Automatic annotation (TrEMBL):
Residue ranges occupied by any Transcription regulator AsnC/Lrp ligand binding domain in the UniProt entry: 6-74
Organism of this sequence: Thermococcus cleftensis (strain DSM 27260 / KACC 17922 / CL1)
Protein's name in the database: Transcription regulator, Lrp/AsnC family
Record Gene3D superfamilies: 3.30.70.920
InterPro entries per record: Dimeric_a/b-barrel, Tscrpt_reg_AsnC/Lrp_C
Length: 79
């Protein structure tokens, strides 16, 4: 299982529209509206890198109000 955090910038005033477009996606476990450089943070769980690629291509890139994303793949500490 791969966990990733996707930082999202949307067109001003479209946060609710983007939230509505994403809220029922089974790969998205949490959505946060945040202040600062980014507008939303998504916590995503997928089975593989290929599935993460598919999520970006088939979900995020098809939402016209999303201007930019940055994806952080989570890792764990060993120790």
């Amino acid at each position: 299982m791969i966990e990733a955090f996707v930082l999202v910038v949307v067109k001003p005033g479209t946060e609710e529209k983007v939230y509505e477009a994403l809220k029922n996606n089974e790969r998205i476990k949490e959505i946060y509206r945040v202040y600062g450089e980014y507008d939303l943070i998504l916590r995503v769980e997928v089975g593989s890198i290929e599935e993460l690629d598919k999520f970006h291509d088939e979900v995020l890139r098809r939402i016209k109000n999303i201007e930019m994303t940055e994806t952080l793949i989570a890792s764990s500490y060993r120790g």
